[in-house]
Fold this sequence. Notes:
Layout: H1 6-11, H2 16-27, H3 34-43, H4 47-55, H5 58-64, E1 80-81, H6 87-107, H7 109-113, H8 128-148, E2 158-162, H9 170-173, E3 179-184, H10 187-197, E4 204-208, H11 213-216, E5 221-226, H12 235-248, E6 249-262, E7 267-268, H13 270-277, H14 290-299, E8 302-312, E9 315-324
Amino acid sequence: MSTISNSAAESLPVTEEAVVWAYRLFLRREPESEAVVREHCSNANSLDDIRGRFVTSDEFKTIVRGFGPPQLTGFEPPLSIEQVEDPATTQRLLDHVARAWSAYGESDPHWSVLTEDRFHKDKVAENLAAFDELGNLHVRRFLATLERNGIHLDGAGRCVELGCGVGRLTRWLAPHFSSVTGIDVSPGHLEIAQAHVKRHVKNVDFMQLRRLEDLATLPRINAFYSFIVLQHNPPPIMEAILERIFQRLESGGIAYFQLPTYIPGYSFDVKSYLRDRGGKLDMEMHVLTQARVFEIAARHGVQPLEAFGEIVGITVSHYFLMRKV
């Protein structure tokens, strides 16, 4: 059974049929009248908006009797996450991630970016416009976050996008900077990204990340962007990437990135990980705690401006906006 992600729901039109089904699914009844349905259509901006209206209504709360998505209580236990100082071990972890995503780049590149049935290799051609527009949606969210914090891009500066995949976000980032560098571990993804992006913009170059030291060779940058990418890397890789990116940020430069910060029961031990997962090439979900993110940032003079959290299933993620002093 296929599912529609939150981002996909945000992009779909609000129809009268959708509103009627919202009544049936959330409130277990038919709408009061056609006029009420039309009113919902007129006032809602997206399917996500419709869903929010219904699940926060008193009627729905009565039906579910207090059931809702998991929330942090403040009593969560600490997570056991080993830090790795040995460069050879860290590189071994990166090599494992690269093998997995290079395999996806060959077998099902678009689906590996957005795991919806319509983006599988045999279906994506007819859904490329929707796939691309979802990239635009997330860049608009990035710009709204900047605006909320009094930051306005002037079209200048150099941006680095980590985990550019097939370029669905890269082309939308490009108009807001003088240049953008898209970085990925997968040559197959990068090949598609280059072909896609060059049809729309000319100020983008790409780099395959083979070693973490590659990040240290980047020119100084004014912005860093990464979305649903860091989460697929073991914590030592996330740490190493943030360390090197923060080093390359110019004074006043911004970093906007998303990663999971808490999953109940999550732990990471490098020996167990390499023993149990070293031969498995699949998508993984990892955690880097907020405390560790803030610690790394402080070491490089990078100050947090905003940390916006969301819970999907049992995974707590945060979108961080930071600026280097």
